[in-house]
């Protein structure tokens, strides 16, 4: 692995009209709303299931394990920070049990607004939760979709392993890197 140091990416602020969103009830669990991070004008939009921690217990900015592994794989695939924007199916991190299907369906409205506004050239869903929510099909998985482009509405979408899965099962890391290499090649073609 090449020498690489993960870093805190700039957070994309929540639009003022959305900061008090209480639509699905998840706000009661107390986690703050995170709209996204990285370059909002990037050609590639990465979609995770939900945000991880961005601050440690003392409130200092930190890069969680998921983002460390994601940034590492992107770096090894030759992708740059400027090319990437990361967002989530759920804009808040759940901390207790919740109605997954209903909550995802409600919060997805925010993602649809982001897509309409940002219009990325390529979308990458990381992990089965993001895949199933975004494709609206609970039978799909990363394994079946990775390494290819798919059309969802007018959007070009691919899938990749979740960085946390690759962290927990190191044999998956080379596959995540391969997924990011596919993303890098695809965006070069699109451009
Ligand atoms: S999870 Fe999404 S829909 Fe639910 S309260 Fe938070 S921002 Fe609103």
From TrEMBL:
Q: Output the Gene Ontology terms for molecular function.
A: 4 iron, 4 sulfur cluster binding; deaminated base DNA N-glycosylase activity; metal ion binding
Alphabetical keyword list = 4Fe-4S, DNA damage, DNA repair, Hydrolase, Iron, Iron-sulfur, Metal-binding
Cross-referenced Pfam families: UDG
The name of this protein is Uracil-DNA glycosylase
Q: What is the top-level taxon of the source organism? A: Bacteria
Upper lineage ranks? Bacteria, Bacillati, Bacillota, Bacilli, Bacillales
Entry keyword DNA damage: yes
Gene source species: Ornithinibacillus bavariensis
Which InterPro entries does UniProt cross-reference here? UDG_Type-4/5, Uracil-DNA_glycosylase-like, Uracil-DNA_glycosylase-like_sf
